[in-house]
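Q: How would the structure tokens look for this protein?
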Amino acid sequence: MSLISLAVTLIVIGVLLWAVNTYVPMDGKIKKILNIAVTVCVVIWLLYAFGILNHAGEIRVPQIR
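A: Here is the predicted structure in token form.
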């Protein structure tokens, strides 16, 4: 995955989350849960994208030489 596509994806997710938070009338608690859920999903997706987390669930730590 290229850095440009990664940045575009993060921008699109951010704009969509902003639009939902701004224009969709919801209770504050539901918005907070939605924001936390989206943030956790994006962080897990980034861990997969950078190869830190593999599909078996194991966390790989890069070797420092």
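Helices lie at 3-23, 28-49.

The longest helix spans residues 28-49.

Upvote if useful.
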